[in-house]
User: What shape does this take?
Amino acid sequence: MSLRLLPVPDGLAGERADLGLSRMTGLSRTRTGELCAAGRVLLDGRPVGKSERLTPGSMIEADLPDPGPTAPVATPVEGMGVLYEDHDIIVVDKPAGVAAHPSMGWGGPDVLGALAAMHVTVATSGAAERQGIVSRLDVGTSGVMIVAKGERAYSVLKRAFREHAVDKVYHALVQGHLDPSSGTIEAPIGRHPGREWRMAVIDGGRESITHYDVIEAMPGACLAEIHLETGRTHQIRVHMSAVGHPCVGDATYGADPALTERTGLRRQWLHARELGLAHPITGEWMTFSSEYPEDLVHALDVLRLP
Assistant: This one.
């Protein structure tokens, strides 16, 4: 632990202490709330509760954990399967609750750490904490994810994702019934102006295009197959929320908490179902798919009941 002095910026005026400290340090909100509860955070010399509001110009004194490792640490991840592996690439079935790579404020497992524990060597291109990563899935999103093992594969795959030459298919269970049942959502996405940890549809955001088809309707929700033309952070979650149909279980983007409780979900119902791409070295078209994990199957079963 190390003591840090942090002046409260004007942009965080009125924010809760745990959220403001999270945004200033990169630690999770849960972790900053724990620090407040333990008396490790002072505001102008006095202990501050996690729900207290910050005022601009005040000084935070926080006893913070030392920065986490900047490179993956070999850590086995239960439930992470390998769908395909050769000399150039490895395709994994990522469970929910696992990050793509280490990052500041995330203390849980990650794909690169799991691969290191499996003695899989990945490409050295990119920043130390995300070497080999060509496309990421959110921590709370399960399904197919590819990692480059060789340098040439990394370069070719990065270009393929950048040029939208990859077929990314997701399944999402969303609240309500999408109308029309097939369509395209085209709306620019950027950082939420008041909540930097969220994304939002905003003027001046990056071009974002989501195609969807409803494949099953049930009381209060529908299951949609989604093809991403672009790959923005939280794209499906943001676009579905923007049209009034957030992913079931997605508290960050407006999911109904009563429906979430009924399904037992602890994350958004969103699954990377299929990934199709040309092999970066041979050029052969390859398609990989992932079955729904148990929590998503359970939620579907619950909502299918009349």
Remarks:
- The first strand starts at residue 2 and ends at 7.
- Residues 192 and 198 are 6 Å apart (CA to CA).
- The longest helix spans residues 151-162.
